[in-house]
Amino acid sequence: MWKLLQLRREQGRQAIADLRTARPEGFRGLPVIATTPCADGCRACVDVCPTAAITAPPVRLDLGRCTLCGACAPACPAGKLAFTPEVAMAASRRDDLVVAEGPPRVPEVDIGAALRRRFGRSLKLRQVSAGGCNGCELELNALANVNFDIGRHGIEWVASPRHADALVVSGPITRTMADAVQLAWDAMAEPRFVIAVGACAISGGLYDGAPGVDRGFFDRQPPLIYVPGCPPHPLTIARALLAALNS
Amino acid sequence: MSSLVVHAVALDELPVLEPRAWRNWVKGELLQGGRPVMLWGRRGDAGVEVSIALQRADRGLDVLRTTVDPAHGYFALTEVALALHGCERELHETLGVRLTGHPWLKPLRHHGQTQAEMAAYPYYRLDGKCVHEVAVGPIHAGVIEPGSFRFQCNGELVHHLEIQLGYQHRGVEALLDRGDPRRSVPLVETVAGDASVAHAWATCAALERLAGVALAPEVELARATLLELERVAMHLAGLAGLATDVGFVPGASTYGRLRTTAINTTMRLCGSRFGRGALHPGGVAITPDAPAVAAAVALLTAHGATADACFFGSRVVQHRLQGVGALTTAQALQLGLVGPAARACGVELDQREGAGGAYAARPIAVVTEPSGDCWARARMRGRELAASLAWLADAAPALTAVPARQPIGALAPSHLVLALAESWRGEVVHALETDAAGRVVRHKVQDPSLRNWLGLALGMRDNDISDFPICNKSYDLSYCGNDL
Ligand code: SF4
User: In whole angstroms, what separates CA B119 from the centre of its chain?
Assistant: First the structure.
């Protein structure tokens, strides 16, 4: 009993006060690309990237493919690329995930007025992992722990797709999960939407073109929210959801 | 010296035997106590090259190869070493090698198939008046990877559990075999994304051996720091999960928030909560923040001790975990379990024991538990994480700046190298082979989960089906690591 009280005292208050303004220390997040001109014919960043996320010149970095591995920044002889601790990286339009040269621009999340009105105070999520490596899954789970406590905003994980408003997909979607993902979606009542979490789900990421992957589901049901990262920081996911609900 | 177990051999010095002689040699080695580490294949010019790696008591590896005509195959080794059942099923499934005498050539991961094609597979079934089947998955009632479990039950008692995986099969090895040096480490970081550091380190160590690069002690120390932080974080995650599953709420919330502290420390060091992008061949990219590590370790040690006292001291927790899902030492050895699952059955097997590099400078205490049940596996995690924290407390002050990324140079041509790293889940095994031009043409990965899933299945026999969640959580195995 005394031990339990001690445990409670040590625990104190763990919740992050405001998920919308918290900045994780040391996090390698939203990249910024300086406008300094590239050296003639230099493709150092393009060549070093494992996911073909960069095109140049001008340097453009697709957060939908990027795993935030950090290899490109030191590769650039002109020091054009840098990573900031900014977590707000999610977008509703796939094109908005492409970072261009110039000052950092936080992409916009917008699921539309009708869905916002419907789900603004309560959003139930059903998650399906379809080739996810347990990175995204752990971070999605972390959203509900005592630190992030997303439940205080009315956002909750549910067990059945029938109770869910949005389907959260992680992983590139394997051939062997293609049917199951579709079944989960078909079981959901309207209105409903898809959230793609992590580079694998958004673009296939490292698994783009892998033999065991079938991305047909996303062609049929384009996501309304793309959350980049590998895996995304829980704050990136929280920021995306709160921005979507405008809460 | 590397902190991992690394073994390199030039292909022209690799002993290649006729299938029958090869099999006899393996049988002889097994009788003398050799431990099967991995068996894998590669399509060669003259057939399928099948290699096996065995570990001697002194932790040294022996590798031997044979070439078989896939249509002819060979007499399965699973018959003499059950531990190899997964490896041989994979060999059969991916390279079409005929395996006479294999007791269970069931598809391991539906290689090249869709889920629908598996519908006709004849799963085990129990018929009778009082028996029934419970099928769960592939999607589970939580934020968790997919897999399918079929329980054959007699009332509440589980007679047999058949686990079907493969839902996470995305084709990692096919991508790795393309040998793109930019992609190998990022890819292996996602083989089992909760053991990124261990997999990345094994790949890096193998590539470094091929390039003849020896790392500075500071680099070994920094990598080991990340590996032990990963172990601490995932053992905390596992204990949080177990506490949730037995309904011990204070344990669940405390272990959960302590894990946040552990992975945030990893993020302070390398920018990612999972250590992604930190290791690369030839070095490690970290910002050495010794005071931050020391402070986190002190907090984790102090608050972790309180949580342990409450959790393991609780009669409810003891009652729920003790005697549930038990395996004997003999079963663990026969199945070839690895990592904490094996050590919880009293098997002393930890690749960090007697290792070089960072673990030679600061040896880490190897922990075992005797009872082989959920309690033993939970205790293992608590004690191992305490041992890792003690190691980190000692190592943290020595963290210093390490040289930035450096290319490692050309790889030795026509070589085979194996590297074993002890992840929090057990040994990860990476085998890399280069061709005459020094390109990687085969990169075989084995996650400890492949070895341990059958342990969970057999441990469930004669247990209540309602105890499955805690049994599953006590092993905490990877679906994607198995499915590749
Ligand atoms: S940080 Fe992103 S863009 Fe840069 S190299 Fe890594 S994956 Fe490519």
Answer: 29
* Distance between A193 CA and the closest CA of chain B, angstroms: 18
Report the candidate in B424, B447, B408 with the shortest Cα–Cα distance to residue B205: B408
- Spatial distance between the Cα atoms of A219 and B263, rounded to a whole number of angstroms: 35
User: Of B98, B106, B95, whose CA–CA distance to B75 is shortest?
Assistant: B98
Find the CB nearest A10 among B144, B276, B303. Answer: B303
Q: Is the CB of A70 under 6 A from ligand 1?
A: yes
Is the distance from the beta carbon of residue A199 to the nearest atom of ligand 1 less than 6 Å? no
CB-CB contact of B131 with B154 (8 Å)? yes
Determine contact, residues B448/B338, Cβ cutoff 8 Å: yes
Identify all chain B residues contacting A142, using CB atoms and an 8 Å cutoff: 260
Q: What are phi and psi of B371, to 5 degrees?
A: -90, -15
Cβ of A63 below 6 Å from ligand 1: no
Delimit the domains of chain B by residue range.
5-100, 215-407
Any ligand 1 atom below 6 A from CB of A237? no
Mean pLDDT of chain A: 91
Q: Report, as an integer, the average pLDDT of A83-107.
A: 91
Q: Taking 70 as the threshold, does the pLDDT of residue B351 lie above it?
A: yes
Pair B464, B156: CB distance under 8 Å: yes
Q: Which amino acid is at B36?
A: P
Ligand 1 pocket test, pick from A60, A65, A66, A230 with the greatest ligand atom count within 8 Å of Cβ, gives A66
**CA of residue A208 to ligand 1 center, whole Å:** 15
The verdict on a CB contact (< 8 Å) between A210 and B174 is: yes
- pLDDT given for residue B103 in this prediction: 87
Residue in B closest to A12 by C-alpha: B254
Question: What domains lie within chain A, and their CATH numbers?
Answer: 31-87+94-99 (3.30.70.3270), 113-245 (3.40.50.12280)
Instruction: Pick the residue of A136, A176, A207 with the most B CBs within 10 A to test the interface with B by mutation.
Output: A176
Helices (H), B134-276: 172-176, 184-188, 196-211, 217-245, 249-270
Strands A193-197 and B16-17: unpaired
DSSP-derived pairing of the beta strands B426-434 and B440-446 = antiparallel
- Pair B293, B269: CB distance under 8 Å: yes
Q: What is the pLDDT of residues B30-70, one digit of tens each?
A: 888 899 999 999 998 889 999 999 998 888 899 999 999 99
CB contact under 8 A, B169 and A206: no
Q: How deeply is A76 buried, as exposed, middle or buried, from its count of CB atoms within 10 A (0-12, 13-18, 19+)?
A: buried
Q: What is the interface size between A and B, counted as CB pairs within 8 Å? A: 200
Tell me which residue has its CA closest to atom 4 in ligand 1.
A72
CATH of domain B215-407: 1.10.645.10
pLDDT in tens, A180-193: 999 999 999 989 99
- The DSSP secondary-structure symbol of B147 reads -
**Nearest CA owner, ligand 1 atom 8:** A49
Residues B402 and B254: their CA atoms lie apart, in Å, by 34
Burial class (CB in 10 A: 0-12, 13-18, 19+), A94: middle
Q: Confidence band (pLDDT; 50, 70, 90) for A14?
A: confident
Residue A224: CB within 6 Å of ligand 1? no
Decide: A53 in ligand 1 pocket, CB within 6 A: yes
**Given a cut of 70, is residue A247 above it in pLDDT?**
no
Percentage, residues of chain A above pLDDT 70: 99
Give the list of residues 6+ apart from residue A138 with CB closer than 8 angstroms, or none: A231, B193, B194, B237
Cα–Cα distance for residue pair A143/A155, rounded to 1 Å: 10
Residue B295, C-beta contacts closer than 8 angstroms, at least 6 positions apart: none
Yes or no, beta carbons of B260 and A145 under 8 Å apart: yes
- Report the SS3 class of residue B312: helix
